[in-house]
Amino acid sequence: MNVSASKSAHKPMRLYINVDHVATVRQARRTDEPDPVEAARLCEAAGADGITIHLREDRRHIQDDDVRRLARSVTTVLNLELATAPDIVALASELRPHQATFVPERRQEITTEGGLALELGRGDPKLTKAIARLRDAGIRLSLFVDPDARVLDAAAELGVDAVELHTGTFANAFPDADEALERLQRAARYARELGLAVHAGHGLTYRNVRPVAAIPEIEELNIGHSIVSRAITTGIGRAVEDMRVAIRAARVD
Hints:
Layout: H1 5-8, E1 14-18, H2 20-27, H3 36-45, E2 50-54, H4 64-73, E3 78-82, H5 86-95, E4 99-102, H6 125-136, E5 140-145, H7 149-157, E6 162-166, H8 168-173, H9 178-193, E7 197-201, H10 209-213, E8 218-223, H11 225-252
Parallel strand pairs: 1-2, 1-8, 2-3, 3-4, 4-5, 5-6, 6-7, 7-8
Helix pairs in contact: 3-4, 5-6
C-alpha cells in the first residue's frame, strides 16, 4: 500500500475523539454512567484536539443534556454532528459549538453508512436552510461526504468551510484497500483545490489509520468507536482494582 508518511510528517494532524459510544453503553441501562462528559475530559487531558458528538434524531446515544454539558465543559473544541432536524439545528444555533458537521441519517442504520447525497445545482432546501442558520450563528461548517469529485463540487457550491471524507469504504476493504485509498487521496487533493478544509473519518482503527493519516491534505481525523473499544480493554484492569479497593474499605470499616 502506498503510504507517503514523509509528505505529511511535517504537518500537524488534529485528532477529534467521538464519545458517542460512551453514551451508547450508558443508554443500555438508562443510567448516569459512563458519562460522555467525563470521557471527553479524560480525552482532552490525554491530548485530544477536539471532541465530536452526534446528536441523532432518535437520541440513541448522545442526549440533549449531554450536548449542553459538553458545550460548557469542553476546553478544546466541540464538533457537533447533526442532520437537518429543526430542533437539533435550533439547539446547535443556541449553543454555538466550534464546528457543526452535517451528516445523513437513517433510523434503521446501525451507524452512518455513507456521505450526504449532494448534486451540483440541486441543493436540498432543508440542508441549505440549516447551513444558513448555523452560518449566521458563527459556527464553522463541514459536510460529511463520499470521496467523489461531483459531490465535492456540490459541497463547495454550498459555501461550507470543510468536508469530512467518508473513510468507510477504505476501512471495510483494508488491508486490500489500495483503490479506496487512491480515491481518498484524489478527493483530498481536489477538495483543497476547491478551497475546502479536508477532514476524514468513519471506521478508522489502530490497524488502518496510518494510510489515511499520511494523506497530506487531511488536517483532521474524527475517530470514536475504535478508541472507546480499546479503552474498555486497556482500562478495565484499573477499574477492577478500584472496585476491589472500595470493597476492602467497606470490610475494614
